[in-house]
């Protein structure tokens, strides 16, 4: 479970990037995180993962405070950032072994997991190539493989399907469903509303740093008394008009 309690973030000036955000992301569900560009999604995720400090409030991962107990919190989540352009001068296999070393994945299990994940994502034959030679989609796949290597209980995914080919996107969605069904947390942001509508058990909608809605799609339609698609409800909900 992820608990976000009364979190603020201000980049300067009077307008807060995140304004008193309180949100509980439960175990056993896929939660979609929605909002227009600049709504505060990536800022929230970067605070959740310890990339950015909180100005106020607390965030805990299965009871571990991301600021008070960062090492314990970071051991139990995996984070896919919105840009996969990292560790470009490493070979794919070196990057995965580096991640395995950080999370102390045993050598025998590590090799098995690396082979399984990279064959599923069709990058096994490229593991001895440098990541800087990879396409955007291949870089996304190597980052996702690294995140899943230590089998974290909590998945935090920022636009994880961007750049993936249809087969790999399908495989990742199946993995997300299985992980949640096993009682774990899957929290992901996306601009693909059809994917969210198809995949998510619940959604959280943010705009201008404030939480507008959190619940199931049926609850959203009931709240706004409509049978429209998620796209229409979302556009109405986040309209500045």
TrEMBL record:
Keyword Nucleotide-binding recorded? yes
Which SMART domains does the UniProt record give? AAA
Q: Enumerate the SUPFAM superfamilies for this protein.
A: P-loop containing nucleoside triphosphate hydrolases
Q: Which UniProt keywords apply?
A: ATP-binding, Nucleotide-binding, Transport
Pfam families associated with the record: ABC_tran
Does the record bear Transport in its keywords? Answer: yes
The transmembrane residues are none
What are the protein's GO molecular function terms? ATP binding
Family annotation (InterPro entries): AAA+_ATPase, ABC_transporter-like_ATP-bd, ABC_transporter-like_CS, ABC_Transporter_VariousFunc, P-loop_NTPase
Residue ranges of domain ABC transporter in the record: 2-233
Protein name per the record: ABC transporter ATP-binding protein
């Amino acid at each position: 479970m992820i608990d976000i309690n009364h979190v603020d973030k201000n980049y300067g000036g009077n307008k807060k990037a995140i304004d008193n955000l309180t949100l509980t992301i439960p175990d056993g569900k896929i939660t979609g995180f929605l909002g227009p560009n600049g709504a505060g999604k990536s800022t929230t995720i970067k605070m959740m993962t310890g990339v950015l400090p909180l100005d106020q409030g607390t965030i805990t991962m299965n009871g571990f405070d991301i600021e008070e107990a960062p090492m314990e919190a970071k051991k139990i989540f995996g984070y896919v950032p919105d840009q996969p352009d990292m560790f470009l001068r490493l070979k794919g296999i070196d990057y995965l072994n580096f991640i395995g070393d950080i999370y102390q994945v045993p050598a025998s299990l590590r090799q098995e997991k690396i082979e399984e994940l990279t064959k599923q994502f069709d990058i096994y034959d490229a593991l001895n190539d440098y990541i800087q030679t990879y396409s955007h989609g291949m870089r996304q796949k190597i980052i996702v493989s690294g995140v899943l290597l230590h089998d974290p209980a909590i998945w935090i995914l920022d636009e994880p399907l961007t750049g993936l080919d249809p087969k790999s996107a399908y495989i990742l969605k199946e993995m997300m469903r299985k992980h949640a069904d096993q009682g774990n947390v899957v929290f992901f942001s996306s601009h693909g509303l059809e994917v969210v509508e198809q995949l998510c058990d619940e959604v959280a909608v943010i705009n201008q740093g404030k939480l507008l809605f959190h619940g199931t799609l049926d609850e959203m339609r009931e709240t706004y008394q409509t049978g429209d698609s998620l796209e229409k409800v979302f556009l109405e909900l986040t309209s500045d008009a």
